[in-house]
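hiii so um. not sure if this is the right channel but i have a protein structure encoded as tokens and i wanna go backwards to a sequence. like what aa goes where. can anyone help
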């Protein structure tokens, strides 16, 4: 399993909304769609039943974000590059 972490200026709800949109539209050959969702996390299901988990928790100036997947590691990493960086 590949795990990625980052800090963004978005609030947790913004991170989750961006994740749902990104995985549904930006990587069509590896599309993944919400299966379960709660405050601060979303589990997306993709090709072959592969799972992507994105979680965000509020922190000073934005959110701490963690994403994981077994087969979709490159796509999770690419999603993280779309998130605005938190102010230093």
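sure thing!! here u go:
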């Amino acid at each position: 399993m590949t795990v990625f972490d980052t800090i963004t200026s978005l609030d947790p709800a913004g991170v989750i909304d961006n994740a749902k949109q990104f995985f549904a539209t930006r990587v069509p050959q590896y599309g993944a769609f919400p299966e379960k969702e709660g405050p601060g996390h979303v589990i997306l299901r993709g090709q072959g039943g592969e799972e992507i988990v994105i979680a965000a928790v509020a922190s000073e100036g934005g959110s701490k974000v963690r994403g994981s997947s077994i087969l979709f590691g490159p796509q999770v990493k690419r999603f993280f590059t779309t998130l605005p960086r938190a102010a230093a």
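oh and The CA atoms of residues 8 and 86 lie 4 Å apart.
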